[in-house]
Amino acid sequence: MTSPVIAVGPDSTLDEVCDLLFTRGLSAVAVIDQGALLGVVSEEDLIHRAEIGTAAPRCSWWVWLFGNNTALAADYLKSHSVHVTDVMTRQVVTVSLSTPIDEIAALLEVDRARRVFVVVGGQVVGIVGRADLVRALARARRSLPRTVSMHDDASIRQEIVGALRQEPWPSIGETDVVVTNGVVALWGGYMSEQERKASLVLAENTAGVRAVDDHRVPLDIAYAMV
């Protein structure tokens, strides 16, 4: 996570937020009062603004008459007010220090959030954004062990077959994997192009593999030939 969190207070103005976003290269600023998270002002909150002509157009009389008065007023407030508490998004996603990284990744994907805040005892202690996960990926990739060429064909094949068994998607069987001098030959069939590519990646990522030769055919073709 990134800590400390760059934030503004509830009495801050839109100008202060814009200055922080621009000078720090941020996509969002937290709104915090005495350590408690009140909301966040992000780039998404500033897309529709009267100053740049992107506010929602004025509605016709019948929309004002029959529309949702609360929603219409809220839209006006968000696009015209200079007070942070009027512009910010109050629904924010929070996690704890013990939240696993895979759960955070799921939150960022399912909730379409760009960031989650780490809260301990009601106090904000950090933030995890998509960029933080990319940095973690880069560090993990750099720390991966280099491919060792001393693996024998039998151990390479055993590792590939074992890895395939742990996945729910392969159509390939144990007898369809052949390894000769570090070159993996895949035989049999596959259900989809995604499955074919996934199994190629699985084999390519196995230590000791020099190359992968794919001799498989789509299973619908294989069945037609029987």
| Strand order in space, largest sheet | 1-2-3
- Average pLDDT confidence is 85
Measured distance between first and last alpha carbons: 56 Å
CATH architecture label name of the largest domain:
Roll
Rg from C-alpha positions?
Answer: 27 Å
Helical region count? 9
Domains counted in the coordinates: how many? 2
Beta strand count: 11
CATH superfamily of the largest domain, by name, is CBS-domain
CATH class of the largest domain: Alpha Beta
Main beta-sheet annotation: 3 strands, mixed
Tell me the series of helices and strands, N- to C-terminal.
EHEEHHHEHEEHHEEEHEEH
Here the CATH topology of the largest domain equals CBS-domain
Which class do the helix and strand fractions yield?
alpha/beta
Indicate the percent of residues in helices. Answer: 25-40%
- Which parts are unreliable, with pLDDT below 50 for 5 consecutive residues or more? none
**Could you tell me the strand content as a percent range?**
15-25%
Described by the principal axes of the CA atoms, the overall outline is elongated
How would you explain this protein's 3D organization?
With 226 residues, this protein is an alpha/beta fold. The chain has two domains: 7-140, Roll (CBS-domain), CATH 3.10.580.10; 153-225, Histidine-containing Protein, Chain: A (2-Layer Sandwich), CATH 3.30.1340. The chain is built from nine helices and eleven strands. It has helices at residues 14-24, 61-66, 69-80, 84-87, 101-110, 130-143, 153-165, 193-204, 219-225; strands spanning 7-8, 28-33, 36-42, 94-95, 115-120, 123-129, 177-180, 183-186, 189-190, 211-214, 217-218. A hairpin with a 2-residue loop joins β5 (115-120) and β6. The longest helix has 14 residues, at 130-143. The N and C termini lie far apart (56 Å). The model has no long low-confidence stretch (mean pLDDT 85).
